[in-house]
Protein: Bifunctional NAD(P)H-hydrate repair enzyme
Organism: Thermodesulfatator autotrophicus
Amino acid sequence: MRLVYAREMQTLDRFTIEEFGIPGLILMENAGRGTAELIVERFSHVLPQGALIICGPGNNGGDGFVIARHLFQKGFPVKIFCLAPTEKFKGDALINLQIVKKMKLPLFFVDSDISTLRQEIKACGLIVDAIFGTGLTREVGGHFAAAIEAINQSEKPVIAVDIPSGLSADSGKPLGIAVKATLTATMALPKIGQVIYPGRYYVGELKVVDISMPKTVIEELAPKRFLLDESWASKNIKPREPESHKGTYGHVAVLAGSRGKTGAAILTCRGALRGGAGLVTLVCPKSLNHIYEIALTEAMTYPLEHETEINSLSYRAFDEIISFCQGKKAASIGPGLGLHQETFELVHRLVARLDIPMVIDADAISALAGELFHLRRAQAPRILTPHPGELARLLDISIEEIKKNRLEIARLAAKETESIIVLKGAATVVVSPDGREAVNYSGNPGLATGGTGDVLTGLITALLAQGYEPFIAACLGVYLHGLSGDILAKRKGPFGFVAEEVAEALPNAIKETIMRKKLGSL
Ligand SMILES: NC(=O)C1=CN([C@@H]2O[C@H](COP(=O)(O)OP(=O)(O)OC[C@H]3O[C@@H](n4cnc5c(N)ncnc54)[C@H](O)[C@@H]3O)[C@@H](O)[C@H]2O)[C@H](O)CC1
Ligand SMILES: [K+]
């Protein structure tokens, strides 16, 4: 599903109305009817106590009038509270206000004194928040803020129309105050601010309402920005053909590990194996080989003579590594690699010269700080998987700057490095230099434990080795990795599971996603 900013949504809206001639009133009717049907489906147990629809002055309020009308038609008691006088309403919203007036639905107008509204909030079964949608332009104040505060204190089920009122559809931050919804019924497409933090806290469960915006409008005009959820993943995962063998799924080379950090190499191999690579070989310093021979069963090792005094790989092994990688389908480099100058020199040369797709993580990202031109000389796709600290070092900016707008900075990084950027965190974003981007919707804080990044690196490399197009490999890896964490959070608990288990749960995540694909095709 595509992800949009408010202004992009408004353009799609306008195009639908002006180019396809679908009147805004039809869109509003579909928006309101679809939301009313969702409310009946999910909240019929509290509807008999009455639905309280709170409307703002714009088309979001207009949606609210349509919802009230449809709930009334289905026999449920409704009460409509308008936070603006009739003369403030225009266009489709005004038309729907006049309809509910003619139908004599219970309709009240409030301004500064919201005492009546407070009483109704206490007495109702559920609240429909139709105050502001994508037209929110400034900090919420006055009686609008008081109403939102009363809604949040009510502990009633709250259905946000299009977006929780007060939440910025773009930044995902509240403009002063925002409704904390139980469920958000968003029109046509999810908005960026709903799927990143803190927006996700305010949205509750997110459901998309089809308002009959023509598919071609979305496919041709909507930005190539994707929400990585189970529907996206089930469309992009490829089930296996019966006539296949290890070679079909590629041989992954892992360049990782050094003294004291052998676990990172082992976890990367585990991620690659559980991610479906046909074969995995760990290229390692000879002095550590005996450790890996014991720790790794399904993965092979390729021990190298040349190593540094901290038992890390050295550029002196460059030629040998290049010849070993002939015929391999993809490589991981970085986890636990060490920060030795000779290792950094090796990273520079391999990133520029190794002509197979490569996932660059951890110490290999640190090696590229101030050396981005090696990436620009790359002869095959590069995927970088930094956490905010690593990206801050790579771009020589502060972590605060990254936290302020993760997607913006990831775009800058993709451009500067001419590589795909996976900026890990809540929520992980994937940005490609060709303009495609994605926000991950799976995962949870239980994944914030050492080594899960190594598993992700191996997993993405395995997907590259199986022939997934690099941007898809990065997105599918991020999604499956997060889903593994969700499976573990359900099965074991909100945190306390470890990286090894995330690798082990990958087959379950793959199964769930493929099952969903099969169901989707039924
Ligand atoms: N395809 C679709 O997505 C459709 C969406 N619909 C609904 O329309 C709204 C957007 O409507 P719009 O009139 O542009 O704005 P809002 O209703 O969100 O409200 C803005 C309204 O309020 C005023 N305002 C803005 N900020 C503040 C503030 N802080 N304090 C006070 N007043 C404020 C502003 O001047 C406007 O008048 C969308 O979200 C959907 O719900 C269509 O119904 C169907 C198609
Ligand atoms: K709203």
Remarks:
- The pocket of LP7C6HRI (ligand 1) is lined by residues 9, 13, 27-28, 31, 56-63, 132-140, 144, 161-162, 187-188, 211 (CB under 6 Å).
